[in-house]
Amino acid sequence: MEKKNTKVICFTNNKGGSGKSTSCANLGYELSAAGQKVLLVDGDMQLNLSLSFFDEEQVMEFAESGRTLYEAVRGKKDLQDYVAATPYPNLDLIPSSTLMSQIEYELFSMMQRELVLKKCLKNIRQSGTYDYILIDAPPTLGAWVVNVLCASDWIIIPVEASPWGLFGLANMFDFLGELRDMTDAQVMGVLITKVDERKNYYRQTREILGEYETIRVMDTFIHVDSAVEWSQDASKPVGVYKKSTRSALEFKRLAEEVIRYGSGQEEHGTGV
Asked: What are the pLDDT digits (tens) for 191-233?
């Protein structure tokens, strides 16, 4: 069987509450539902990506067993040994731990510390097991996020359609610009989330982003939808919890857009 050309996409934004983990989880599910083999990597100490597929008891069991991203990275281990199957076909997860709060300290004393995650993922990528690896980064701009970016091919930046949604985005792009010599990752696009069309914030967000010629905005955007919160409470993707809901259909369209982008049918984003 021909090996897959594994593509690594990270979700990052230095502002919390942007819908980063929600977008990563639901895109991952919809890609897998479309027949793509997907590995999710929970790189955030808040565990939201892990909790999107497993209940709290199971996530704590992963942590107690040492089968977490933190243990792999601190030991520079092959991540193939830390993969957990989710309840859904074609979709696996490397769970996180609250100990990820210490990862900056762990990286500090390591040689080539910006490349640790990339090396941990090397065998998984070369195996061609997965079509996509999606990494959920924490809302910071430290050494760990540098690791995530250096391990990635593409970057999706979720931005909330709210008065403060764009706060810090300039810092995010300045940070990415400083990494040009360290990574070949490209910005696939800004994903606008939590859209409420009863308010003008979506239009304002589009207009502001439109002023930047080098910033690609994803065609798909994600509305505010209570079904997302209910699905998170049930530790299920919204497409499983209620596949007819508007957000489930939007995440499905987002998966289609990402697949088109990966096949070269969409205009590619800018370099970091």
From this structure: 999 998 888 888 888 888 888 878 899 999 999 999 999 999 9
What's the pLDDT score for residue 266? Answer: 60
* Residue 88 DSSP symbol: S
**Cβ atoms 207, 176 nearer than 8 A:** no
Residue at 44 is within a domain: yes
DSSP 8-state secondary structure symbol assigned to residue 12: -
Q: Which of 49, 90, 96, 30 is nearest to 232 (CA)?
A: 49
Q: Containing domain of residue 120, as a range?
A: 7-265
Please, which residues have CB within 8 angstroms of residue 36's CB and are 6 or more apart in sequence?
90, 131, 132, 255, 259
SS3 at position 189: strand
Structural domain contains residue 2: no
Query: Is 90 inside any structural domain?
Result: yes
Tokens 């509450």 belong to which residue? 17
Q: What is the pTM of this model?
A: 0.94
Quote the number of domains for the chain: 1
In a domain, 130, yes or no: yes
